[in-house]
TrEMBL record:
Enzyme Commission no: 2.7.2.4
Gene encoding the protein: lysC
Organism in which the protein naturally occurs: Thalassomonas actiniarum
Keyword check for Amino-acid biosynthesis: yes
GO biological-process terms attached to the record: homoserine biosynthetic process; lysine biosynthetic process via diaminopimelate
Family statement drawn from the similarity comment of this UniProt entry: Belongs to the aspartokinase family.
A Pfam entry, by short name: AA_kinase
GO MF annotations in UniProt: aspartate kinase activity; ATP binding
Keywords tagged on the record: Amino-acid biosynthesis, ATP-binding, Kinase, Nucleotide-binding, Transferase
Keyword set includes tRNA processing: no
Protein name: Aspartokinase
Length: 459
């Protein structure tokens, strides 16, 4: 590993770490400077993937929507420009940089006007992609101001995707080919700064990979470059036993297996985009998670084999869940009912999270992530299901996932988990399909308290 302070200089020179900095890590000039120091202190850091500065993508999401009025549009563009120029003003005077920022802002204004005239998903992605373009340009200059040879690389040259705007799928073989051909030769000369979250389709139109997708971009680039390590620098000192915003009792985990961390990401631990660990697991690439504010505190190492495999590792929480119950007496001793339900869901590209069944009813849960274009359970889907059976839809629920090891074989699991939270209405329990998790739904209004109480009991 070249992430530790003990790595020799030569080891570091030979190693390749992809370092990803999230929104708060590149929020302003001081934050960027801290990240630049992290890059400077380890020669293995040869590729830097940045997110948009904190808050910028949320502004851009609003700008990309159909109903933004002229005044709001102009206010958003002013707010975004201010974030960029506040960073710019701390950097050495350079007319070229001002010009580049102005050009990007001008392009963004044009796209926003175009979107107001005629909404297109393609234009929405073009708009969303500006945050990462600004931050990568500015971060390159911050590195250069510390005398680090660095250049900004447009990731859209290599991150080729299909045209599913808002949740584009990356062509892995093409990414690998492009990285070897276009990016590897650059690495010998300079630190490469590039954008997370964005890509481009076969026609050259900009695409995005889904909210929080920079972690995934960084993992894909590490894999395509045959990198040795991936470092995710964020605003907390690693992966905690639960979201530290929910309880101050949460504590950082030193080491965690790929499988456990992937479950956490899937079940809502925002610290990692759900797909981040897929490329890392494929190539057995260790992933470090730490705080760019306090790099000296270390962080969490995610790897294949870890020394301890506790029954209870962590608790994840995902809000905004919808529970759909479909009920049909015709299901009794009948076959093919579930296939019909799932074919309707598949037609509308809806993916089911949890499922439980009884003789005549099936309960299913769906995620409703905000700020994405993910397919949602619309009234059309519900009416199609109603042709088959009785349907009830409930919103305002949260999914709690207890993550650990050997949960299917653990004794006393039921009382460990449910005794302390028996004052709450638990809507659905899923256990048995995975030995790494036990999940259940609770009303959203109780979710934080349930996690807090459960955390106090299990850890
Ligand atoms: P970035 O902008 O760096 O990508 P995110 O906001 O996406 O950062 O992710 C970091 C946040 O994830 C933390 O501030 C924390 O509130 C949240 N989080 C959720 N679950 C966990 C967990 N188990 N451990 C650590 N942080 C978590
Ligand atoms: N900037 C994007 C977002 O806010 C991607 C990321 O931060 O990972 O969703
Ligand atoms: Mg994130």
């Amino acid at each position: 590993m070249s992430l530790g302070v003990n790595a020799s200089n030569q080891d570091a020179v030979n190693a390749l770490t992809v370092a990803k900095f999230g929104g708060t890590s590149v929020a302003d000039y001081q934050a960027m400077l801290r990240c630049a120091t992290i890059i400077k202190n380890d020669l293995a850091n040869k590729v830097v993937v940045v997110s948009a500065s904190a808050g910028v993508t949320n502004y851009l999401v609003r700008l990309s929507q159909e109903d933004v009025g002229e005044q709001e549009r102009s206010d958003i563009i002013t707010a975004i420009s201010q974030i960029q120029f506040n960073i710019r003003k701390e950097l050495p005077e350079e007319a070229g940089l001002d010009q580049q920022l102005q050009t990007l802002i001008g392009e963004l204004e044009n796209h926003a006007t175009q979107q107001a005239n005629e909404y297109k998903a393609q234009t929405a992605d073009a708009i969303l992609a500006y945050g990462e373009q600004f931050s990568s340009l500015l971060f390159t200059r911050v590195l250069q101001s510390l005398d680090i040879a660095a250049s900004c690389f447009d990731v859209r040259r290599v991150m080729k995707t299909n045209s599913l705007y808002g949740k584009a799928v990356v062509d892995l073989a093409e990414l690998k080919r492009n990285c070897q051909e276009l990016l590897v030769p650059e690495l010998a000369k300079k630190v490469i700064v590039t954008q997370g979250f964005i890509g481009s389709d076969s026609l050259g139109h900009t695409t995005t990979l889904g909210r929080g997708g920079s972690d995934y971009s960084a993992a894909l680039l590490t894999e395509a470059l045959n990198g040795d390590n991936l470092a995710i620098w964020t605003d907390v000192v690693g992966i905690f036993t639960t979201d530290p915003r929910i309880t101050d009792q949460a504590r950082a985990i030193k080491e965690i297996s790929f499988g456990e961390a992937a479950e956490m990401a899937t079940f809502g631990a925002k610290i990692l985009h759900p797909a981040t660990l897929i490329p890392a697991m494929r190539q057995n690439i260790p992933v470090f998670v730490g705080s760019s504010k306090e790099p000296e505190k270390g962080g969490t190492l995610i790897k294949q084999q870890v020394e301890s495999n506790p029954t209870y590792r962590s608790i994840a929480l995902r809000k905004e869940q919808t529970l759909v119950t479909v009920k049909s007496p015709a299901m009794l001793h009948a076959s093919g009912f579930l296939a019909k339900v799932f074919s309707i869901l598949a037609k509308h590209e809806l993916s089911v999270d949890l499922i439980t069944t009884s003789e005549i009813s099936v309960a299913l849960t769906f995620d409703n992530p905000t700020g994405t274009t993910q397919a949602l359970l619309t009234s059309t889907v519900v009416s199609e299901l109603e042709q088959l059976c009785e349907v009830s839809v409930e919103h305002g629920l949260s999914l709690v996932a207890v993550i650990g090891n050997g949960l299917h074989a653990a004794r006393g699991l039921g009382s460990d988990i449910f005794d302390k939270i028996n004052d709450f209405n638990i809507r659905m329990i899923c256990h048995g399909a995975s030995d790494n998790n036990l999940c259940f739904l609770v009303p959203q209004t109780d979710a934080n308290t349930v996690v807090e109480q459960l955390h106090n009991t299990l850890f």
